[in-house]
């Protein structure tokens, strides 16, 4: 008679929630959250201080200085994505501009505060999903990860979008644990606001809705969850429709979908260190297996997995028809990725091995931040443009800048260089993204009529240069024409009048 041996299944719930919680008191939880926030601040203050403003930041700063009515007019069109950050910056600049504070420093300071706050909030949400140990590591990876650090130091709305998806996840957990009107309203409002902060946050809302079906209390919470999803879905749909109607080719620069793009997204989401793809893949495997389990562990694994992978899958699907796959657009999936890496490290189980792997993961992430500090900038070198502008301009020249945002950053760089403001600027009409279209051409021609020279600061497209020539004089001579990494600097001189001929005797 043959005896059979029963092979015990691994306890996947124990992998996600190891025996014995690490933090047993509220004081210990608060201390851990404060320590994570302090680490996040230190890393961000040391990472790439004083990098030049680039074009996207200058657009946000320029728009934030418009009157509220003008801002709202832009936010129901081409600039809808990032609206909450623009309005926040507008409120801050109303206070700081009269004090003479640098607008870029104010904008980046706001992003730094937002990015720092996201770290302990992810820890608090992660405790309820994957346990104390994995939540600590996930928040630690967010604190030192290059991708989040970089965009926590940019005067744009990416850091705010990440904060809002973390807050909406916390509201979802509160709703599922204690179904009531208040958390349902908070969840829906935060989800819609996150989509307004960045359109790809709508993909996170889809991940949250699918993962909620695995929560053990879904039957009890179904009514309020439906209300929250309806509110968030309706708000997100409005933002997406506005964005689609206001699309005037702003994303036309994005390359068609390729496997290289997809690989770049994954590398960025693990912090730039390819070795971290290993624990991320391990975490995805563990979470996928644990998602089949019943109870809180199955729900936590499902949400972490969906939060990390569903936004990427949906972005790839959309990009088949319209290219939109840009790594920074998927920053909203970063907290889910951090949770997956933490789950993968924790799956090693042996405490010393887990600790060593966690330290290695943190060290690899921190190394990428240090390398980025000395890397060549990827943005337009506005500081170089400002120096060349001063070198090629002549007394009496006018200056026409093709975009209000570009004018903002040029002014800042000229002031930083401690030089005279250079040529007298002919302001383009507020809100006109090109300032050389047929509409304002007559005004520009009239204002340039008495000038003998003019400097145009444009994007590199040749059509802009043709319009610039037409706006000044049809027969203008090109005195200087150079392109500095996407910014074109063109100086034109009006032809000298022909000398008068000798008088003819009658």
Anisotropy-based shape: elongated
Number of strands: 5
Q: What amount of the residues lies in strands? A: 5-15%
How is the largest sheet built, in terms of strand order? Answer: 2-1-3-5-4
The succession of helices and strands, N to C, reads HHHHHHHHHHHHHHHHHHEHEHEHEE
Q: Explain this structure to me?
A:
The structure is a single chain. The chain contains 21 helices and 5 strands. Strands 2-1-3-5-4 form a 5-stranded mixed sheet, sandwiched between helices. Strand 1 (398-401), helix 19 (404-416) and strand 2 form a beta-alpha-beta unit. Helix 7 (132-144) packs across helix 16. It has helices at residues 12-16, 26-46, 55-64, 68-75, 83-96, 103-130, 132-144, 146-151, 158-177, 181-197, 201-212, 218-245, 259-269, 277-290, 296-321, 334-346, 351-373, 382-392, 404-416, 438-447, 462-472; strands spanning 398-401, 424-425, 453-459, 477-484, 487-493. With 506 residues, the protein is mainly alpha-helical. Helix content is 62%, strand content 6%. It folds into 2 domains: 23-373, no CATH class; 382-493, 3-Layer(aba) Sandwich (D-Maltodextrin-Binding Protein, domain 2), CATH 3.40.190. The radius of gyration is 27 Å and the shape is elongated.
């Amino acid at each position: 008679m043959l005896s059979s041996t029963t092979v015990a299944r691994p306890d996947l719930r124990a992998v996600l929630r190891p025996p014995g919680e690490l933090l047993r008191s509220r004081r210990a939880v608060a201390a851990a959250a404060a320590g994570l926030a302090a680490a996040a601040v230190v890393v961000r203050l040391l990472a790439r201080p004083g990098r030049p403003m680039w074009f996207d930041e200058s657009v946000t700063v320029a728009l934030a200085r418009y009157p509220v009515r003008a801002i709202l007019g832009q936010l129901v069109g081409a600039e809808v994505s990032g609206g909450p950050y623009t309005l926040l910056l507008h409120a801050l600049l109303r206070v700081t501009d009269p004090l003479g504070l640098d607008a870029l420093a104010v904008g980046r300071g706001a992003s730094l505060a937002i990015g720092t706050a996201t770290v302990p909030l992810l820890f608090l949400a992660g405790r309820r999903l994957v346990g104390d140990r994995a939540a600590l590591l996930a928040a630690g990876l967010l604190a030192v990860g290059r991708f989040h650090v970089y965009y926590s130091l940019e005067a744009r709305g990416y850091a705010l979008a990440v904060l809002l998806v973390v807050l909406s996840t916390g509201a979802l957990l509160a709703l599922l644990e204690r179904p009531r009107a208040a958390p349902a309203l908070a969840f829906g409002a935060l989800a819609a606001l996150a989509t307004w902060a960045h359109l790809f946050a709508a993909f996170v809302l889809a991940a949250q809705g699918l993962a909620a079906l695995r929560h053990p209390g879904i039957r009890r919470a179904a009514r309020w969850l439906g209300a929250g999803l309806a509110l968030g879905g309706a708000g997100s749909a409005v933002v997406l429709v506005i964005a689609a109607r206001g699309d005037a080719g702003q994303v036309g620069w994005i390359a068609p979908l390729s496997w290289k793009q997809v690989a770049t997204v994954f590398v960025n989401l693990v912090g730039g260190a390819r070795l971290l793809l290993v624990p991320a893949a391990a975490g995805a495997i563990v979470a996928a297996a644990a998602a089949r389990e019943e109870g809180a562990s199955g729900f936590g694994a499902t949400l972490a997995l969906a939060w990390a992978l569903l936004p990427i899958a949906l972005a790839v699907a959309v990009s088949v028809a319209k290219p939109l796959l840009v790594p920074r657009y998927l920053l909203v999936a970063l907290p889910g990725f951090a949770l997956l890496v933490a789950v993968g490290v924790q799956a090693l189980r042996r405490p010393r091995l887990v600790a060593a792997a966690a330290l290695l993961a943190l060290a690899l992430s921190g190394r990428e931040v240090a390398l980025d500090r000395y890397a060549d900038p990827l943005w337009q070198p506005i500081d170089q443009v400002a120096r060349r502008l001063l070198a090629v301009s002549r007394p009496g020249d006018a200056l026409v800048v093709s975009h209000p945002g570009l004018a903002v950053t040029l002014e800042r760089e000229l002031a930083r260089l401690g030089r005279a403001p250079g040529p007298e600027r002919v302001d383009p009409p507020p809100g006109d993204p090109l300032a050389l279209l047929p509409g304002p051409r007559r005004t520009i021609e009239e204002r340039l009529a008495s000038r003998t020279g003019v400097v145009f600061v444009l994007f590199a497209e040749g059509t802009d240069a043709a319009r610039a020539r037409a706006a000044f004089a049809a027969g203008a001579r090109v005195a200087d024409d150079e392109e500095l990494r996407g910014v074109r600097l063109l100086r034109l001189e009006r032809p000298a009048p022909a000398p008068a001929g000798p008088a003819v005797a009658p």
